[in-house]
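[job 4471] stage=fold_predict status=RUNNING
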Amino acid sequence: MNKKNTSALCGNKTLFKTQINASVVSTNKYNRLHWSKKHKLAKDYGWLVAIAIVQGNIQPVTVPAKIKFTLLKPNKAGVRDHMNLSAVEKIITDWFVKKRVFKDDSPDYIASTELEIKIDPEIKEQVIIYEALEA
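[job 4471] inference complete, writing structure tokens
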């Protein structure tokens, strides 16, 4: 079975799917950062989200969505547990709200979030796949 089509087979329509080329800071490390570094990191992700929206022609989501956040890594070096992706997922989701792709990040609009880490030896650098599925 082709994994790219599994969301359609499960009844979840893909609303949008985008790739963000960025390193991921673990939630543990993020929590220890000085507020100014947190602000800069969030701003950097904001630019990457803006680029993804334009390049992917991402339109506003008008139905409740399930977010699937996948970190693709070229190897197992520095593999974190899934929950350590939550800070970056939250920052990116907040930027999609600020850019009006989602009206809000409350449960009325973001029904659930799935965090995943996959190893793909064919890639050279880690990549974030951010996908919104119909909930």
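[job 4471] summary: The chain has one domain: 12-134.
[job 4471] exit 0
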